[in-house]
Amino acid sequence: MFILRGLKKIGLWCPIVFLSFVAPASAASFFDDWRFPNESDVIGDWEIYRQEGREFYTFAADFNGDHKEDEAWILIKKDNTQWGVFVFLDANGSERKIIELYRSEPGDNVPQGFGIVRTDPGHYLSACTQGYGTGCQLGERRFVVLKNPAVDFFRFESANSFFFWNEEIDGFENIWISD
């Protein structure tokens, strides 16, 4: 069950309290600073595209291939100075791990101008291979073959990149897909 989303749907949108009881101490301290989006945050592009029946600040998938449900979220700093993209590996388990994929700088664009969606396994060309920018630099990835779903992080109607699990480094890697 998609616990965090489930709490929201049944009107108990208080995952901060919930996670403080079931998550390790590091997760509890994480939520001293960060919060999940709430209804007042659904403005701008999040509101426009939600009318299509989609939420662009969260989704669930098995990113690392361990057959456990993980969750990706755009979270907002409680003081509203920053936002970021985070993955909760094993989101429903007691050993969940929080991984920061991206963090905005203070004063950057608002989170509602960005979104995350699931990218299915497959073969994808990088932005440089597709002719964006000045072409591929030495050592830059020209493509990626995804074995598991990935996080497609994008600015609405603009650039996007994938955050995908790389077994060789036992962590996430990023590749630009469009500019």
Number of strands: 11
Mean pLDDT across every amino acid position: 85
Give the DSSP E fraction (strand runs of 2 or more residues): 35-45%
Radius of gyration: 17 Å
Major sheet summary line: 5 strands, antiparallel
Structural class of the helices, strands and pairings? alpha+beta
Integer count of domains: 1
What's the helix count? 4
In N-to-C order, the SSE pattern is HHHEHEEEEEEEEEE
> What is the percent of helical residues?
10-25%
Characteristic key phrases:
179 residues, 5-stranded antiparallel β-sheet, 4 helices, 16% helix
How would you sum up this structure, described in words?
The chain contains four helices and eleven strands, in the order αααβαββββββββββ. By secondary structure, the chain is of the alpha+beta class. The strands form three sheets. Strands 1, 2, 3, 4 and 5 form a five-stranded antiparallel β-sheet that branches. It has a four-stranded antiparallel β-sheet with strand order 6-9-10-11, with no helix packed on it. It has a two-stranded antiparallel ribbon with strand order 7-8. The longest helix is centred in the first third of the chain and has 8 residues, at 15-22. It is globular and about 40 Å long.
Topology:
Elements: H1 3-9, H2 15-22, H3 25-30, E1 34-35, H4 44-50, E2 58-61, E3 70-77, E4 83-89, E5 97-103, E6 114-119, E7 122-125, E8 143-146, E9 150-155, E10 160-166, E11 171-178
Antiparallel strand pairs: 1-3, 2-3, 3-4, 4-5, 6-9, 7-8, 9-10, 10-11
